[in-house]
Amino acid sequence: MPKRPWKSYRPVSGKPYIPKWKKTGKGRRYTIKHIPESKIRMFTIGKEGDYDYILTMFSLETAQVNHLSLEAARIASNRYLREKIGRDNYLMRILPYPHHVVREHKMMAFAGADRLQDGMRRAFGKPFGRAARIKKNQKLMIIKVHKNDLENAKHAMKRAKMKFPMPCRISIEKIKQKNEKSETQ
């Protein structure tokens, strides 16, 4: 059966369906059975240090972002930054975590399927993925870089921006160094 397009899950509606712990006779168990693992593994990449600029990506709409989209954005920007400026010259963080469990009511979707299956209206469905619920103007991703690597970081953010299902904007801020404050005193 083919996979449904993400546009059918993108709008935020209802309460989030999140995994909760329940105490049973066998110990603590999830109340949702067979939750798929999140594909995104690393939320912080790079090296901590004193950087000159911080680039932040904000969402312009409320939406649900698939865990695969978060991982694709991380891979696209990290690969570009690693080959252009090196592994230890930046710090990148993915901020939202995919808590919401997305459900799908599986139906046949091929030619002639209407004669075989009508389906159920408002069916509950089985878990098939995870999503992060993003609010308007919420931070999605940050990258900290040195002054001479700013253009490469902008390009990496643009690559990551294409992976998200909603429009985003990028803001650039100069980080105030601790040494500047101590010199003036």
Explain what this protein looks like in three dimensions.
The protein has a domain at 35-104 and 124-175: Aldehyde Oxidoreductase, domain 3 (Alpha-Beta Complex), CATH 3.90.1170. It is 23% helix and 30% strand. It is built from four helices and ten strands; from the N terminus they run E-E-E-E-E-H-E-E-H-E-E-H-E-H. It has helices at residues 67-85, 113-116, 150-161, 178-184; strands spanning 21-24, 27-30, 44-46, 53-59, 63-66, 90-94, 100-104, 126-134, 139-145, 168-174. A hairpin with a 2-residue loop joins strand 1 (21-24) and strand 2.
Topology (SSEs and partners):
Blueprint: E1 21-24, E2 27-30, E3 44-46, E4 53-59, E5 63-66, H1 67-85, E6 90-94, E7 100-104, H2 113-116, E8 126-134, E9 139-145, H3 150-161, E10 168-174, H4 178-184
Antiparallel strand pairs: 1-2, 3-6, 4-9, 4-10, 5-8, 6-9, 7-8
Helix pairs in contact: 1-3
What are its keywords?
Aldehyde Oxidoreductase, domain 3, 5-stranded antiparallel β-sheet, 10 strands, 3-stranded antiparallel β-sheet, 185 residues, alpha+beta, 30% strand, 4 helices
For the terminal residues, how far apart are their CA atoms? Answer: 68 Å
Order of helices and strands: EEEEEHEEHEEHEH
- Multimeric state: single chain
Uncertain segments of ≥5 residues (pLDDT<50)?
A: none
Give the biggest beta sheet. 5 strands, antiparallel
CATH class call of one domain = Alpha Beta
- The side-by-side strand order for the widest beta sheet comes to 3-6-9-4-10
The coarse silhouette is elongated
> CATH topology of one domain, anyone?
Aldehyde Oxidoreductase, domain 3
Total beta strands: 10
**Name given to the CATH homologous superfamily of one domain:** Ribosomal protein L16/L10
Share of helix, binned:
10-25%
CATH architecture of one domain: Alpha-Beta Complex
The rounded Rg comes to: 21 Å
Question: Helix/strand-derived class?
Answer: alpha+beta
Would you tell me the overall average pLDDT? 84
- Number of DSSP helices? 4
- SS strand fraction: 25-35%
